[in-house]
């Protein structure tokens, strides 16, 4: 028994030794369940970028990054357990990739003082840094996304959507319901008719929804889907011969695995994206330093896919915020509060992205005390089933701040009143 | 040797019919309570509270509730998730409509509203039985979840359709919302669990419980000996739903703090709690606790063992964990179809004879 315990104790010592000097970025991932198809590439990209930092650059500012992984299966209860299990480890930032889990974590991170970054998901009004001190959702949020879709459709239709019928097909959860207030406000402003069609989670069964779409013949269908729901919706749209180029998904409904099951029928399907997907030089580095050394989080097959790129983008934003924090404080071993300050002073410029080997991956933006939401810009991309490639159709489109800003103000003010938060940054 | 009635003389009927007639049992019960109230709150941290004790206690309350209906009264129900949702949403509406009302009353109010809804959905039980009733309660499950998703009044017109618990205090200590201490969160659940379990145990020993069991064992015979099936079945639905409603309210307000009805109170929840009482033991209060412990703690334990200690990949662990828990459920049910409570009972019988079994 002693001989068996000795190496184990040694292992514990070895693991505990350098742990004190690590920068910890917990990854609440989901590699199982109906949402795994999206969770796996995102988590691979997220972890591989930190591994790249360690292998190529010797860590972040000389300190190694450590990424403890915890499986949530997109389930809020497991998400809370994962948060509690990892937060004592010196966690610097949480990115749960789930709107439901985000809602659980917002009060917890505000109390525990750990920053939460929900890139393009989560609670939209967290963009108001005056109320949400520890929550960030740059570079874009759902309301931005909804506005970008409508703007794009306006441009396509000669500047007016008067009298058009637009259907929102959404995941019947906090995630899918988020864009509704914005779309309703925009429908009033631009005079289009909005129909809401919910799909219950996980969304394998959508016959009745698409029957309704076939009956109502909307001009456009906008989809807020995730996981298996996207693949089913695209297949159903193909089954009723809905014109694919009039079907637009948000940025969580526009990855390769969403369109490939429908084969050629998915050709022409459009989706938003908040990061461009091209063959960035950084992928070559990841292949050399991470995949070829056998250190990849997954099997390496996802490198360069839409969600892998987004996961890597999320990790890059976290690393850049950590570097900003290191520069601001002059210490390499930052803590969660310093990380938060770094995030609040983050500046993403074209030169910076180019230097990192991912030129033009996202829009340029700066974060400030009052603005935790970034620029909100997104591109529209289209699936080319023949080449099996997403083709960008537009440059980054800016959302309609005139509509979104008052909505964010109102929603965050309601949160502040409910929880007795005094606005900061004045 | 020490676990036996011999020498433990009872001089009154009251003493003779107490819950724990054997001295050792009684002292063990007091010891568990003492540890739960006087030791655990001082050593508990956020992880132990949010990942282990709080969910365990809340699921135990829900399991006791369902056990009253299924185990004691024999009315199969698949509506548990929906009834928990009623408790959660009723509690939320009370919390936001009356900000000065103490959270304890909001939770009890959630229970009462659920009891009323439970009676309503229990009405078909007067005409239909068994699997047919299960289907009727399944309708309740889907209807209630749909209702809370569809009608914005229930979630106060929030943009996301989520309900989130504002901060509330008991004796000046926050128990919901941000900044809750782990021990406060644990203690409020513990108080509810202990009081409700004690009440359930005594209810099931009395007239009401006996009429439930009479209906369970044979409803026609029960009716002939003078048990009113309307009263028995509807009280079972009311009491059971009250418990489940309180569990739902605690689940929302104290444990998660924000819920989304489809995700938190879906059909999986109904099945999970049904599995708890089947594994724990139908018609047993201890079984409800044992079943909740089995299904809440075992996955967490396996995860910590496989990922934390052995360093397995998280996805592999998640799959293996499903297999192990599934295999254990099947194994347990083959070895003892009456659940963990029966194993416990057999163990106690053996202990009585120990060390001289005949």
UniProtKB/TrEMBL annotation, chain A:
<dbReference type="Pfam" id="PF13458">
    <property type="entry name" value="Peripla_BP_6"/>
</dbReference>
<comment type="similarity">
    <text>Belongs to the leucine-binding protein family.</text>
</comment>
<feature type="domain" description="Leucine-binding protein">
    <location>
        <begin position="28"/>
        <end position="386"/>
    </location>
</feature>
<keyword id="KW-0732">Signal</keyword>
<feature type="signal peptide">
    <location>
        <begin position="1"/>
        <end position="21"/>
    </location>
</feature>
<dbReference type="InterPro" id="IPR028081">
    <property type="entry name" value="Leu-bd"/>
</dbReference>
<dbReference type="InterPro" id="IPR028082">
    <property type="entry name" value="Peripla_BP_I"/>
</dbReference>
<protein>
    <submittedName>
        <fullName>Amino acid/amide ABC transporter substrate-binding protein (HAAT family)</fullName>
    </submittedName>
</protein>
From TrEMBL, chain B:
<keyword id="KW-1133">Transmembrane helix</keyword>
<feature type="transmembrane region" description="Helical">
    <location>
        <begin position="50"/>
        <end position="69"/>
    </location>
</feature>
<keyword id="KW-0472">Membrane</keyword>
<feature type="transmembrane region" description="Helical">
    <location>
        <begin position="271"/>
        <end position="298"/>
    </location>
</feature>
<feature type="transmembrane region" description="Helical">
    <location>
        <begin position="318"/>
        <end position="335"/>
    </location>
</feature>
<dbReference type="InterPro" id="IPR043428">
    <property type="entry name" value="LivM-like"/>
</dbReference>
<dbReference type="GO" id="GO:0015658">
    <property type="term" value="F:branched-chain amino acid transmembrane transporter activity"/>
</dbReference>
<feature type="transmembrane region" description="Helical">
    <location>
        <begin position="130"/>
        <end position="148"/>
    </location>
</feature>
<feature type="transmembrane region" description="Helical">
    <location>
        <begin position="76"/>
        <end position="95"/>
    </location>
</feature>
<dbReference type="GO" id="GO:0005886">
    <property type="term" value="C:plasma membrane"/>
</dbReference>
<feature type="transmembrane region" description="Helical">
    <location>
        <begin position="236"/>
        <end position="259"/>
    </location>
</feature>
<dbReference type="InterPro" id="IPR001851">
    <property type="entry name" value="ABC_transp_permease"/>
</dbReference>
<keyword id="KW-0812">Transmembrane</keyword>
<protein>
    <submittedName>
        <fullName>Amino acid/amide ABC transporter membrane protein 2 (HAAT family)</fullName>
    </submittedName>
</protein>
<feature type="transmembrane region" description="Helical">
    <location>
        <begin position="101"/>
        <end position="123"/>
    </location>
</feature>
<dbReference type="Pfam" id="PF02653">
    <property type="entry name" value="BPD_transp_2"/>
</dbReference>
<feature type="transmembrane region" description="Helical">
    <location>
        <begin position="183"/>
        <end position="200"/>
    </location>
</feature>
<feature type="transmembrane region" description="Helical">
    <location>
        <begin position="27"/>
        <end position="44"/>
    </location>
</feature>
<keyword id="KW-1003">Cell membrane</keyword>
